[in-house]
C-alpha cells in the first residue's frame, strides 16, 4: 500500500514539475517569454514598417537596420496570426487593427488607444494618407468619393474603426456617376472598405474598388494612373514625386506580443534594441 502511494506521489510531483517547466517557457522573471525573442516585421514597401522603423529609431540615415533574422509578414492579418501563434514573438500593427488574439504593450508608460493617439501622448503614431496626382484634377466620381471620405460625415465611420478622423467639412455630393479605384496600404484598407460601404448609401451611382497591397504600391499606382486614389500609412518620400498626400486619419502603431507573454510594457529604446539585434533574449528586458 505504501509503495503504491509513493508511486502516485512521484507521478504527481512529476506532473507538477512538467507544468512548471511549461509555465517557465512562457514567462520569465515577470519580463515575458523566456529564451530568444522572435522578431516579426512587415515586408519592404509596407507603410507600417516604414513608419515604425523611423519612429522607433530603427531607421537611421535612410537605412532600415531591422535584424536580418526577423520573420517577414506581408499584411496586418498575417502579422496578427503570426504573433498569436508564437509565444516568443514580438511584432507591430495598426492600433485600429488590434484584436484580442494578441496583447498590446504600453510604450514608455502609455497604452496605445484612440485617445492617446488623439492627445499625442502615445509616441508611435503616424498618418493614414490618401494620395492623388499633383496638379491634376480627379474625375468627378473620384472627387465625390474624396470629398466624402474627407468630410465630417465620414468621421463617425473612421472613429468607430479606431482612428482619429481629420475631416472638418460636411459632405455634399456633386452628383457624379462612374467608378473609382483606390489602391495601396493593407493598414488603411480596412477603414477604406468601411468608408466605401458607407459611401454607397449616399451615392449609389459611384462604384468604388478598394485594392489592397502596400503603401509603396499605392503611391506608384497613383503616379502611373493605375488607380485614382492611393493609400499610404506613412508620409510620402522625397523621391515620390508627381503626387501629393492628404491626411485621412491619425493612427497609432501598437507593439504586440503573444497573449501568454507576461510582459505588459516596453520602452522605445528597448524596441529599437530588439529590432536591431542588440537585445535577443526576453530576460534582458528585466535586467535594464
UniProtKB/TrEMBL annotation:
Keywords: Lipoprotein, Palmitate, Phosphate transport, Signal, Transport. It is found in: Cell membrane. The keyword Aminoacyl-tRNA synthetase does not apply. GO terms for biological process: phosphate ion transport. Pfam families: PBP_like_2. The keyword Lipoprotein applies. Residues 1-28 form the signal peptide. Residues 30-151, 171-284 form the PBP domain. It is a lipid-anchor. It comes from the Bacteria. One of its GO terms (cellular component) is plasma membrane. Gene3D superfamilies: Periplasmic binding protein-like II. InterPro entries: PBP_domain, Phosphate_ABC_transporter. The complex is composed of two ATP-binding proteins (PstB), two transmembrane proteins (PstC and PstA) and a solute-binding protein (PstS). Part of the ABC transporter complex PstSACB involved in phosphate import. Belongs to the PstS family. This is Phosphate-binding protein PstS 2 family protein.
